[in-house]
């Protein structure tokens, strides 16, 4: 459920009419709903009611400071994967003891910054990383709290580019080698073992792969405890999918996911951490764009928008589907045209949808891409020297620009021409 509904025939974000935002800041832009963000975060938090837990929002999905602050004020922790994300979490006021640091390639500089600034745990993904973290912690005279990310060799049954839990993926330590690596970790004076971490992939639409992974984590918890390790935290990653197409079978709800966690791991006496990203913010955001031209090709009708693949990469990168809706509500039964919806970038891959049935649209009409809040703005670039797409946050009847569109001068001023030219 989200808070983007038609009122009097006009699409609104909560109580704000989308055309009012477009008139103020121009298009394209991302717009997020505070009420939807809040609701989705709480669904996860409540799903784990009764267990000690921390919901660490995976900020790679959308990392604007205003979004982080909104979630942080609700009690969210953060899952970060780079020094930049760590800096964002801190700038949004998230205390270090609510930040977990994931990622296969943490640098020593990133480790040092997090140890100095405060960190709940590092999710360590390899033995060389373990050794590096030990050295950095010792150089600071401290111990680094860790979980080890195990790769459970489970098929997440999702798009190959976002599956992470099979042995052929680069992530984690093979679960078969976990006991040896925990023994190695326990012997390092700069390391404090806290728990186990697992994340099997993104946009999961079925609980079965989670069950398989969580059962393996449960067995490993028992084995590691028998080996003498103190396992007090289980980080179960993120990945719960969202409905991208209205009317299609919906993925499991956070409540069902929470019940599965309780069923499989609830008796371990561990604090549970989860790292949802997409489900928190995906349906809390729209990308709003204007039609530049509608043109007829030999046998296709093209709708050329002012948003492009650089603003929303998911269709070009994963063949992802996003519902596209006119901001003025179509009259029921109106004739539809099968448009190829494209952007202005000079690549055929700059195609959002092929043969998408939409009412006839004209230049300056507004359209909205649904489910664009996650992996939308964060994956945007300035390809074709198109300014980075701005972001807006709505709360009730107010809206604020939370990232402004850069001017051409700002873009040009980032470059420097060397003195010899
Ligand atoms: N934790 C870890 C360690 C992750 O790698 C990820 C996502 C998450 C949590 C959050 O997963 P989520 O709840 O958002 O599914 N750009 C792709 C998605 C990449 C996901 C990467 N890792 C897309 O647009 O579909």
Structural account:
The mean pLDDT is 96. The protein is an alpha/beta fold and 421 residues long. The protein is built from twelve helices and 21 strands. The chain is 28% helix and 25% strand. Strand 5 (53-58), helix 3 and strand 6 (77-80) form a beta-alpha-beta unit. Strands 4, 14, 15, 16, 17, 18, 19, 20 and 21 form a nine-stranded mixed beta sheet that branches. Helix 8 runs parallel beside helix 9. The protein folds into two domains: 4-31 and 282-413, Lyase, Ornithine Decarboxylase, Chain A, domain 1; 103-274, Alanine racemase (TIM Barrel, Alpha-Beta Barrel), CATH 3.20.20.10.
Keywords:
binds ligand LLP, 421 residues, Lyase, Ornithine Decarboxylase, Chain A, domain 1, TIM Barrel, globular, 2 domains, 25% strand, alpha/beta, 9-stranded mixed beta sheet, 8-stranded parallel β-barrel
- As a percent range, the share of helical residues equals 25-40%
Any ligands, ions or cofactors bound here, and which?
ligand LLP
Largest sheet: 9 strands, mixed
CATH class of the largest domain: Alpha Beta
Strand proportion: 25-35%
CATH architecture of the largest domain: Alpha-Beta Barrel
> Tally of extended strands?
21
**Radius of gyration over C-alpha positions, nearest whole angstrom:** 23 Å
């Amino acid at each position: 459920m989200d808070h983007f509904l038609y009122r009097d025939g006009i699409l609104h974000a909560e109580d704000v009419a989308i055309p009012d935002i477009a008139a103020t800041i121009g298009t394209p832009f991302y717009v997020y709903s505070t009420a939807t963000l809040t609701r989705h975060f709480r669904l996860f938090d409540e799903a784990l009611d009764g267990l000690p837990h921390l919901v660490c929002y995976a900020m790679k999905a959308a990392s604007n400071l205003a979004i982080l602050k909104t979630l942080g004020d609700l009690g969210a922790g953060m899952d970060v994967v780079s020094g930049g994300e760590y800096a964002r979490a801190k700038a949004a006021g998230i205390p270090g003891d609510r930040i977990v640091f994931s990622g296969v390639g943490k640098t020593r500089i990133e480790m040092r910054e997090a140890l100095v600034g405060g960190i709940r745990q590092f999710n360590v993904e390899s033995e060389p990383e373990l050794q590096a973290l030990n050295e950095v912690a010792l150089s600071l005279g401290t111990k680094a709290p860790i979980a080890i990310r195990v790769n459970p060799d489970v098929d997440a049954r999702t798009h190959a580019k976002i599956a992470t839990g099979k042995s052929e993926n680069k992530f984690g330590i093979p679960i078969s080698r976990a006991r040896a690596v925990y023994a190695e970790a326990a012997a390092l004076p700069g390391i404090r073992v806290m728990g186990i971490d697992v994340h099997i992939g993104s946009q999961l639409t079925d609980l079965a792969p989670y069950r398989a992974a969580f059962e393996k984590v449960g067995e490993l918890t028992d084995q590691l405890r028998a080996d003498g390790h103190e396992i007090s935290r289980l980080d179960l990653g993120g990945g719960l999918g969202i409905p991208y197409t209205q009317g299609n079978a919906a993925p499991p709800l956070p409540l069902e996911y929470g019940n599965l966690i309780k069923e499989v791991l609830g008796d371990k006496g561990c604090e549970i951490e989860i790292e949802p990203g997409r489900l928190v913010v995906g349906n809390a955001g729209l990308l709003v764009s204007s039609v530049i031209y509608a043109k007829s090709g030999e046998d296709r009708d093209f709708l050329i928008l002012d948003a492009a693949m650089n603003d929303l990469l998911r269709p070009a990168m994963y063949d992802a589907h996003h519902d596209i809706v006119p901001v003025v509500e179509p009259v029921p039964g109106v004739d539809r045209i099968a448009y190829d919806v494209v952007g202005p970038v000079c690549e055929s891959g700059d195609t959002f949808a092929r043969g998408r049935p939409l009412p006839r649209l004209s230049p300056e009409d507004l359209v909205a891409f649904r489910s664009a809040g996650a992996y939308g703005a964060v994956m945007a670039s300035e390809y074709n020297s198109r300014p980075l797409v701005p972001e807006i946050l709505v709360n009730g009847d107010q809206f604020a620009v939370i990232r402004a569109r850069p001017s051409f001068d700002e873009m040009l001023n980032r470059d420097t021409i060397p003195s010899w030219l």
